[in-house]
# Entry
Amino acid sequence: MEPTQGDYDLSEVDGIDTLRQRMADAETVRDWSFILSDYISFGNNKISDNTGIFNMNSATDCPNADTENCQVPWSDCYAHKAENIYKKTLPYRRRQEYLWECLDAETFAKAILKIKERKRNAFDYIRFSEAGDFRHKGDIIKVDRIAEILSGEIEVYTYSASDYLDWSEAEHFKVMQSNERDNYGDNLFSAVPEKDDIPEGAAQCAYEASDGKVKCGDCTLCIDQRIDRDVYITLH
Ligand code: SF4
# Structure
């Protein structure tokens, strides 16, 4: 599927009517927490189970898809590949976007804290946008407010190629910038041809360096706001 940059027909998204009905019926933070828990995943082959993942939009609808901002060619975008391979992935991520649009930061954050209370395996981190990216300043302000409310309980982080946005209000979450077109993140996450090309003072991604034994969440180089270090993967 070609990138839409966010221009698609919401009424054609599978499951949107059911989600809308659930949202219309939600009265309490607890109700919202049950809805949100169906739209947050925990862990995958690269991310530890102590990390929740929420996408503000899909890769197909990513504002940076197939543009010069994104360092990954559109045909290599793994988040987009998943949306092509698995029939349910794109509609799921579009429903995440709808939920993101409709839910205010306070309710979102309080619902996350309720999920944490209920969950047998506690989690410590939330990663925004494994697929997709920040579209406008409103996304930054909302994530920042959520991170502020969660502060002390859950750390929030993201990677972004949206260098053209004003990131000055991203104070409570960590931003790993994924291009060098501007100085907009806390640190850089980028790729170099070989390990020897990693600049002095920067680190090789622990997941790569450990052959997948150390996952994000076990390693907090890109998560912990107190760590001031650029991170690189190698292209081999
Ligand atoms: S450096 Fe650590 S936190 Fe960053 S991507 Fe690699 S494993 Fe994840």
Remarks:
- The pocket of iron/sulfur cluster is lined by residues 205-207, 214, 216, 219, 221-223, 231 (CB under 6 Å).
- The longest strand covers residues 155-160.
- Residues 89-102 form the longest helix (14 residues).
- The radius of gyration is 17 Å.
